[in-house]
Structure formats: C-alpha cells, structure tokens
Amino acid sequence: MTNHCFIGFKIYLHMSNYHIKGLEEYFNVYRKSIDKPEEFWGDIAEEHFVWRKKWDKVLSWDFTKPEIKWFENAKLNITENCIDRHLLTKGNQTAILFEPNDPTEKAEHITYHQLHERVNRMANVLKSQGVEKGDRVCVYLPMIPELAITVLACARIGAVHSVVFAGFSSSALASRIIDCDAKVVITSDGSYRGAKTIDLKGIVDEALNSCSGVKTVLVAKRINSDIAMKDGRDKWLQPLLDDASTDCEPEIMDAEDPLFILYTSGSTGKPKGMVHTTGGYMVYSAYTFKNVFQYEQGDVYWCTADIGWITGHSYIVYGPLANGATTVMFEGVPNHPDYSRFWEIVEKHKVNQFYTAPTAIRALAKEDLVFVDKHDLTSLKVLGTVGEPINEEAWHWYNDNIGKKNSPIVDTWWQTETGGIMISPIPFATPTIPTFATLPLPGIQPALMDENANEINGNSVEGRLCIKYPWPSIARTIWGDHQRYKDTYFSAYENMYFTGDGARRDAVGYYRITGRVDDVIIVSGHNLGTAPIEDAINEHPAVAESAIVGFPHDIKGNALYGYVTLKETGETRVHDNLRKEINQLITEHIGPIAKLDKIQFTVGLPKTRSGKIMRRILRKVASNELDNLGDISTLLNPEVVEKIIEERL
Ligand code: WTA
C-alpha cells in the first residue's frame, strides 16, 4: 500500500458538505448540490475517500441513451476505502459485530485488522479457484460473517458479486446464476432461522442441475449438517481459507467498473439484474450513511436487513465500513427465542442507530409491551425505516415505545436501482411527520409528473415520482439488457428517471410515498412482480389463467390475492388441494415470500376489449372497496365482475 500514490488521503476536515448538522445547513448544502453538482460531489469525493488516480470529469450523462458516468477515469478499490485506510487509526475497533441466531452463542467482534485479514484470505481463495477481475460470483449465504467477507473479497479482486437472498428457491437461484453467467457459487451447509434450519446446499445442488456453467461451489460450514459434496465441483471453504495468505493487493478498478449485480423484481418477465458501479456507489452510500444516521465515531449501528437485499449492501456493508463504523450483522429473526430479541440485542450491544422495516415494527407492535419494557433502550439515538410506507400507527408505536419520543425516526425512501437513500429526514435537522419521507437528500432532484407526462409544479400536489438529474449511485444498466433499462426507467417521461412509485408533495414540500403505480407489489418490504408469480401459477395443469393483486394486510403491509380461472369448461372449483398446489408451485419457482394469502377461483377475469386484464377492478374487489369500481360497461365481459364480487374471499 505504501508504494502507491494516494490522492485525497487527508485527515477528515470538518466539512459541513459531508456532515450536515442542522436544518439551515441542510438547505444551504442542498442548494449547492443543485446549483453546482459537479463541484459538490467532486469535493466530497476528494476530501473523504482514497483514490489511486483522480477523475478527469466528475459527471457526464445522457438520459436518452441512457448513459451515466461519475468520476470518469478515476481509479480506486472500494475495499481500500472500507478497510485498509482505517487500519492505522482503528485497526482494533470492531468493524463487524456478528450476533448469532442463538442468543446463547457468543457474539463475534471482527476488528478492522481481522476483517482485513479475512477478506484477503477469501480474496486469495477466490483467485485460487480461477476467479478474475470482471467474473461474476454468485453468493448464496445466510447472514454469517462469510457473507460480508465474500462480498468484500470479490470487490478486492474486481470480481462482480451477485448476492441472491438465501430465502429464494432453487429455480429463482438458477435463473439468476444463468442470467449473469456466474462460474462460482458460494454457499453454506445450511442456515439457522429461528428454531429451524434450512438446507441451503440442497437448494444450490438442485439449482445447479440447470446451470452447467458453474464449475466450483465453495461451502462454508455453519450448521454442521451432513451434506453431499459433489466431487470436483464442491469444496469446503475453511481449509482453503486456512491455507490462504492474508495479503492480497487490491485490484485497481475504474470508477465505472461494475461492483455488483443485484436482482430486483420487475412488473414483467424475469428479474432485472441491476448493475452498480464502483466510484459513485461508494461515495453516495457512504455520504448518505453518515448523514441519515448521523453516525459518530464509536457508535454501534444496526440495520436488521439481510445482505441479500440492497439495504444490506449499502447500509450493512459498504456505507458503514466506508465511514469506519461498527456495523451489526444479525443472523436470526425478531421472534426467536421470543419477541424481545431485537430489544435484547439493542441493550446487549448498546446500539445507537437502529434501522428496520415497517413490517417488522408492525409484527412486534402486536405483541405485549413487556417484551420491549424489560430492556434498556437508552443507547438509541436514531431510528430508521425502509422498504415500504410506514403507517401512522406503527410510526407512533416505534416513536413512543422504542425511541421514547427521544430518537428521531428517519423514514427513508429509496430503491435497489437508486443504490442509496434518496428522500429522508436528516435526524436532529429535519422535523419529522409520520408517514412522510420528508425532503430529498443533497443531489437529489425529485419531480412529480401528471398523466400527460407534464411536470407538476408547486406544493400540495400528487403525481408519479421521477428524478430529474443523476446522482452518483444510480444503477447504470440492467445486466445484459440495456434496452430494458431504458424502457423501464427512462421511457415513460422524457429526460427523467421514473421510479415506479407515486408520491404526494405537501404544503411545505415534504414528500410522502403513496406506493407503486406499476405491477410490483411490496409484501413485508419485499418487491414482488406479479408476472413471475402468474407464470408460476399458470404452470399448473389445471390452470387456464391467473391475475395477482395486492390487498392491505395488518402486518405485511400488502398481501397477495390471486384470481385463478381453471381449464375444464370454465367451471368454478373451490378446491383446497389446488390452493396448496398453487402455493407449492410459487414456493418452488420464487420462494415462500411470494405465497398467496387468498386464492379465488373464478369463471373469468375482467378484460378490456383489447384483452388486457383490468387489475384495477380486481384490486378493488380484493381490498373490499366495492362502492367505487369505476365504469365497467366498456369491458369485454362485464358479467364476470358481478360473479367475482359475489364469490370474493
Ligand atoms: C418501496 C428498498 C414508502 C417503494 C430500499 C420503492 C418505500 C420500493 C420506502 C423499492 C419508504 C422503499 N416509503 N415506500 N420509505 N422505501 N419503498 O428495491 O415502492 O427493495 O420503489 O429497495 O420499495 O424496494 P427495493
């Protein structure tokens, strides 16, 4: 490291651009970020990160192609920023604090020094298996330290990680492996989930029956189960790590080299492999982490997400580590061994910032308050939510019982595609209002659009949420399908990134996200596209056609309601076995998170004259909003609506 020339390796100056501490400062910084975006991000990048070579240009962009480049021709390795540069000053500070599923198993404190060694060992193991810069590595691991370490090891050697959430089924895993053409898969012998264990390796084996491109499977030991190892393909990870060197020179990457692919559901067809690149993603995830959580040196920060989702990528791994933070990684679930687990962990590790999903809050709010009250939560300073709208009741429960009205709640709106938080209060600066994500972060220029694709100006308005100007961590493409990237995000409105969400801007300019305006349904904070679920259902030999919609659910936010027509002369059969078989198919194709709560068998689906299913009507019936169905007379088959209403579940 010493023989390279670093620029920007300065002692952190107290720059308000990087760490906003009040509302007035926020407005000033925001103004600057809009007036002079290149200067704004250029200064932050230079002052707060280490680069091997400076950029020639901060930003070039064209939303019509679309092509976006940040920090063009700059060179860096993100792991130098997340690990190496902290070694001198905080080598012995905990970087990752691993809290196991079983509360009686000891928590593991991995210091920055140890993280450095372990990431380097893993990087060398990957190299020894033939992984090179630019190769894709599929990571299918539970929330154990090896997951974070593998992600960082890929980044160390310039391999592109593609983490697949370890709750996805074998066929969902297979399609993701095939899409990005991964040669290596890293998994474990199994995982703990509350009182259960899950046979992850079995799922990988099944997936690989249809992925001939995978030559190597590395297996971490977690549950000590007796699993089959395929000769020549499967290797235990630990002996390889034991033999590997703790030195690994970081690969020098271009700022625009891909860092990772992460799949997200689309409203149609197969999942989209969102591609995030190195320089801009690093700058934005670190900057937003610092400001949205007001992280101070020595704080313990905990995000309960899984690293299999974007929240875990940006706000368990990269954002916190780039700031030299202590980040908690929790293997378990909120209700094991009982409903006090989250609060027990907050007390045990004196957590200062706590970031979770509304669905978890709603589930915990249903339980007795003794689960909360027996724990000392006074360490908490900032609370966060992400992934779906938080309802007012849940917000108040969180504010009253967890924050004791003393910790601001940051309701953070963002997406897999945006790489980092876009709209959110800055704690101790932005006054919060329940259910409002409030104001855009510096550099973010939201716009609301009407039905005729015109921007709606002024306040107290509602429309479709777009972003007018690039920010450093916007996804650059969809892996292998740039046209789909263009069609999905840049075609609905000229020169705008379209989010797929609706939003309201209130009288003072605060944003409230109203929900998806496309066929993506957010269930327990997970994005589910209706098309892949319908495709899975339609594989059932008895099924003619199906349509999925969301309906409000107390805990999950939304649950799934399926309308299914059967073959055989249109006769309606209510058949519990069939329901089970349909959910089984969904579990096999996607995973248990996509199972339907209700399945209604119907004689037909309401359709327009051009044959398009009228989901609007199905959504209203599922939500029991029957007084306002709108005009159904133009339908091809208005008579089925009555029947559907009559037989609704
Ligand atoms: C929804 C998660 C309301 C939204 C980081 C978005 C939210 C989708 C919020 C992205 C919020 C996320 N309030 N809705 N605070 N945060 N969403 O890709 O519909 O898993 O488009 O990224 O979640 O989900 P994703």
UniProtKB/TrEMBL annotation:
Domain Acetyl-coenzyme A synthetase N-terminal: start-end pairs: 26-82
EC number(s) per entry: 6.2.1.1
GO biological process, one term: acetyl-CoA biosynthetic process from acetate
Superkingdom of the organism of origin: Bacteria
Ranges of residues in domain AMP-dependent synthetase/ligase: 89-476
Signal peptide segment: none
Span of domain AMP-binding enzyme C-terminal: 533-612
Pfam family, one: AMP-binding_C
MF terms (GO), sorted A to Z: acetate-CoA ligase activity; AMP binding; ATP binding
This protein's UniProt keywords: Acetylation, ATP-binding, Ligase, Nucleotide-binding
NCBIfam families: Ac_CoA_lig_AcsA, PRK00174.1
Record-stated family: Belongs to the ATP-dependent AMP-binding enzyme family.
Family annotation (PANTHER family): ACETYL-COENZYME A SYNTHETASE, ACETYL-COENZYME A SYNTHETASE 1
Name of this chain's protein: Acetate--CoA ligase
Gene that specifies this protein: acsA
